[in-house]
Structure formats: C-alpha cells, structure tokens
Amino acid sequence: MAGIAGYILRIATRQWVDQVFDLARYYTGLRRKWKPGQTVLFAHRTSDGDSFVGYGVIDAVHEKDDLSETELTECNEFRWKWAIEFKYVIRFEKPLLISETFLRGSKLRGKYLHGLSLNKEQVAAIALQVA
C-alpha cells in the first residue's frame, strides 16, 4: 500500500478560503493522521461546481490547547480541534473542476470529499493538471 500523501479539505465559505490563503492555516475537527510534508488539496464550491482552488504542504499540526486565546475561542465555536500550519499554500489561477479529475467517476460529491485521503499518484495527477 502506497500510504497517505495527502487529503482533500472542502472549505465551506469564501471567507474561509481567503483565510486559508492569507494565514496559511486551516482549522479542523477532522481526525486524520496529519503529518508534516503531506499535501492538502483545498476544494470549494465555485460558480462552475466543486473545484480544487489550491493546495498547501503541511508544516505543523497544533492541538487546540496550543492555540492563542483568539484562535481557541473560534475553535470552540466551530468545534475545531486542530490548526494545520502550512509551509506554503498555492492558490490556483483557475480552479480545477473536480469532475475533470480522477474523481469524476467517484460517487463522492460535496461534503463527502472532505477528509478524503490521497496517495502519491493521486496528488501528482492533480499537480499535472494545474501545471
């Protein structure tokens, strides 16, 4: 088995999309084996449909107890447990429709893509499509 190279995280609101790219941080309650070096593909509903809007490479994962008062308040409000800090984040110039990727045949849509694990080949396939 190839192992987990990354995940898909579906971002619900435009405000949170901007926050991820501005702060290079993502807050989540998802229980996954988050590790430095993994790639996270950010998905968001665009006017054309669910699309990948960018990606980031994990630098560190912080538990809720390690966050500032401001972050802790927001995490409690939304029931988030971790802050994922990225080495860098890249926003795609043009979003890539998920229906135009290897996921086109999948029955997973919308929120069901959130947290989906990806192997190295899947991450590379997306990278090739946006290059």
Please name the defining characteristics of this protein.
131 residues, Archaeosine Trna-guanine Transglycosylase, Chain: A, domain 4, 24% helix, 38% strand
Helix content estimate:
10-25%
Give the oligomeric state of the chains in this entry, treating copies of one chain as homo and distinct chains as hetero.
single chain
Shape descriptor: globular
> How many individual helices?
3
Distance from N terminus to C terminus (CA atoms, Å) equals 27 Å
The largest pleated sheet is described as: 6 strands, mixed
Classified by CATH, the class is Mainly Beta
CATH level-3 fold name: Archaeosine Trna-guanine Transglycosylase, Chain: A, domain 4
Query: Beta-strand percentage?
Result: 35-45%
Order of strands across the biggest sheet? 2-5-4-3-1-6
Number of strands: 6
- Provide the low-confidence segments as ranges: none
CATH homology superfamily name: Hypothetical protein
Radius of gyration: 14 Å
Q: What is the H-and-E element order? A: EHEEEHEEH
Mean pLDDT: 88
- Quickly count the domains: 1
Based on the coordinates given, report the CATH architecture. Roll
